[in-house]
Design goal:
By secondary structure, this protein is an alpha/beta fold. It is built from 8 helices and 19 strands. It folds into 2 domains: 186 residues, FAD/NAD(P)-binding domain, CATH 3.50.50.60; 142 residues, D-Amino Acid Oxidase, Chain A, domain 2, CATH 3.30.9.10. It is 28% helix and 26% strand. The strands form 4 sheets. Strands 5-6-4-14-15-16-13-17 form an 8-stranded mixed sheet, with helices on both faces. Strands 8-2-1-12-19-18 form a 6-stranded mixed sheet, covered by helices on one side. Strands 9-10-11 form a 3-stranded antiparallel sheet, with no helix packed on it. The longest helix is centred in the N-terminal third of the chain and has 23 residues. Bound molecules: flavin-adenine dinucleotide (FAD). The site of flavin-adenine dinucleotide has 43 residues, from helix 1, helix 2, strand 13 and strand 17.
Length: 372
């Protein structure tokens, strides 16, 4: 008996997570990536698992979804680690949201009140308590609150671990395999064009991140409304034994993510500039200036890296999952700023969809139907 194959376009955390789960369930999963595996948004991200602190008004379906994925993380990290022997840098640091200038205090209070009104678990902290938790904060940092459940993972380590898990589970992985077109006949995806070749497909998943909305061959009205939202980031090196920061920290303008190896990741700009990946003086200046205002000791830190990436952003900032208007073609895209956080749940939900033909209840609001 031949196994039905699932072809996945995109080898980021979405495509890899799905392929791993499918292979574990005995399915033949084949992943194509136009570049190296997992070197796009999944590599560029900051790795925050910030379901609470990033909750926004109007995200009624999204909030339970990201909270559910957040709750899956401890077990997911453990399983991936046991399966591959690779540490994904999952750290239960918690997250602080602070005001580093007077103008920010109103924004901070507004945010706290919004989260409290949604019964999300946040705790207001007095200045002395803030200082106890983060002694290197500037004296300007006077107000803040704490989200005990928002943690972090090292997203680059996650990519490497998912890549290794896929290999071990027998997923066929093709790097530098640019899917230049999906061939459609009688409303059904039949083939994909890769580099100069063409192959038949029976079950195709589009998990191409920010590029999902512009794949050739799919009629315009059937494409997922996904576009790139650029973010610039910068990394510095802290002293591993005496880091300047221990928690993930947000201000209304930036976030700072301290890794266990002493890297301090600071992000991110939010720019609607198409696929322009250039770093700008203004973007980097903004990140460094706002870091310095909260954490003046950063002046002495060696600069490690600057980079930019593209969030796969949908029209309503929520993921687009499951069936499309094209038979045999399903979508797994549109995660915007939460794609790392969503990895465990997306992999579970989409593998269930592929295997059983139905998304679980919690993922049901996120089909293309909502844009009709
Ligand atoms: C600056 C920044 C900061 C972020 N911070 C966080 C964070 O802290 N927490 C969080 O949860 N999320 C964060 N995100 C969001 C998160 O990174 C993404 O939502 C997630 O990585 C998307 O995963 P993906 O696999 O769908 O996309 P990607 O990782 O972009 O992978 C898609 C892959 O598809 C490939 N591809 C595209 N077109 C084709 C084609 N035609 N043929 C073959 N391959 C193709 C690409 O090469 C790419 O490797 C951040 C993103 C950015 C940019």
């Amino acid at each position: 008996m031949t196994r039905k194959s699932i072809h996945i376009i995109g080898g980021g955390v979405a495509g890899l997570g799905l392929a791993w789960r499918l292979a574990q369930a005995g399915r033949r999963a084949i992943v194509f990536d136009k570049g190296a595996i997992g070197r796009s948004a999944s590599w560029a991200a900051a790795g925050m698992l910030a379901a609470v602190i990033e909750a926004e008004p109007g995200e009624d379906a999204l909030i339970p979804f990201v909270l559910e994925s957040q709750s899956m993380w401890p077990e997911f990290a453990k399983e991936l680690q046991a399966y591959t022997g690779l540490d994904v840098g999952y750290r239960e640091t918690g997250t602080l949201f602070v005001a580093a200038e007077r103008d920010d205090e109103g924004l901070l209070k507004q945010r706290f009140d919004f989260l409290k009104a949604r019964s999300l678990p946040v705790e207001w902290l007095e200045r002395s308590e803030l200082r106890k938790r983060e002694p290197y904060f500037s004296p300007r940092v006077t107000h803040g609150f704490y989200s005990a459940g928002d943690h972090q993972v090292d997203n680059r380590a996650l990519v490497d671990a998912l890549h290794a898990a896929c290999k071990k589970a027998g997923v066929e992985l093709h790097a530098n395999a640019d899917v230049s077109e999906i061939k459609i006949s009688n409303g059904q995806a039949t083939h994909i064009v890769i580099n100069d070749g063409i192959i038949a497909v029976e079950n195709l998943v589009l998990a191409a991140g920010a590029w999902s909305g512009s794949i050739k061959g799919v009629p315009l009205e059937a494409l997922p409304p996904v576009f790139p939202m650029k973010g610039q980031l910068v990394a510095m090196q802290m002293d591993v034994y005496q880091p300047l920061l221990k928690h993930v920290v947000w201000t209304p303008q930036i976030y700072m993510v301290p890794r266990s190896d002493g890297r301090l990741i600071v992000g991110a700009t939010l720019e609607d500039k198409g696929f322009d990946a250039s770093l700008t003086a203004g973007g980097i200046l903004h990140l460094l200036r706002k870091t310095w205002e909260a954490l003046p000791g950063m002046e002495e830190l060696p600069l490690l890296e600057t980079w930019a990436g593209f969030r796969p952003t949908s029209r309503d900032d929520a993921p687009i999952l499951g069936e499309s208007a094209i038979k045999n073609l399903s979508f797994m895209t549109g995660q915007h700023r939460h794609g790392i956080l969503m990895t465990p749940l997306l992999a579970a939900a989409m593998s269930e969809y592929i295997i059983k033909g139905k998304l679980p209840e919690i993922a049901a609001p996120f089909t293309m139907q909502r844009f009709k």
